Amino acid sequence: MEQPSAREAQRRESRRALQAAATELVRQRGFAAVTVDDVAAAAGVSRRTFFNHFPTKAAALFDPDPEDAGRLAELLAAADGAPDPWTALGAACRRYLVPHTATLAVRRRLAEDPELAAYARTAYGHVAVALDGWVRRQWPGDPLAAALTAQAAAAVLGSAFATWRPDDDPAAFLDLVDRGFALVRVTLDR
């Protein structure tokens, strides 16, 4: 992987600092009580810098890291040709989610607001696209099996997120993901 320039590294650092500040402030005060200016100040950057990275406060909370899609693609590529594609897919999804557990509780609480829930689904559309592309490579001659598998995996992730309680340990969310993949596995094996 190519090393980023110093300017690009600084840009990534600013973006991540803004997301961390937004997440922490919203965790402490709630979404409505936090302003863009609050987030920028907590991250040590200007309001203008905030808007160079994010169009809205919700974007600072939900938009995936630009490297996120590539990381997921790498995890899925490593699972190409696995003898048990469903299990490999579940393992790749779990590895992908582990770094996201730090922001999970805030995002889950915000997802109870219908407008923010819709934003979150849109922001993570790259996950569904990556899953769909991967399963199509695994079942190139069977578009029905590929589509069902991708949608089942997306349903496991969405269902785990919807049923996980944000006051619970984030590890419990990962357990729900594992359980969801296992439950669907049982259905597939019947």
What does this structure look like?
The protein has 190 residues and is an all-alpha fold. The protein folds into 2 domains: 6-62, Orthogonal Bundle (Arc Repressor Mutant, subunit A); 68-189, Tetracycline Repressor, domain 2 (Orthogonal Bundle), CATH 1.10.357. Helix content is 76%, strand content 0%. It is globular. The chain starts with 5 loop residues before the first helix and ends with a helix.
Features:
about 190 residues; mainly alpha; Arc Repressor Mutant, subunit A; Tetracycline Repressor, domain 2; 11 helices; about 75% helix
Number of helices: 11
In total, the number of domains comes to 2
Tell me the Rg in angstroms: 18 Å
Quaternary class: single chain
Shape: globular
Q: Indicate the percent of residues in helices.
A: over 70%
Please give the alpha-carbon distance between the first and last residues.
Answer: 42 Å
> Which CATH class of the largest domain applies here?
Mainly Alpha
* Stretches with pLDDT under 50, minimum 5 residues: none
CATH superfamily of the largest domain: Tetracycline Repressor, domain 2
Q: Indicate the mean pLDDT.
A: 91
Please give a quick description of this structure.
The protein is mainly α. It has helices spanning 6-29, 36-43, 47-53, 57-62, 68-78, 85-97, 101-110, 114-123, 125-138, 143-163, 170-189. It starts with 5 loop residues before the first helix and ends with a helix.
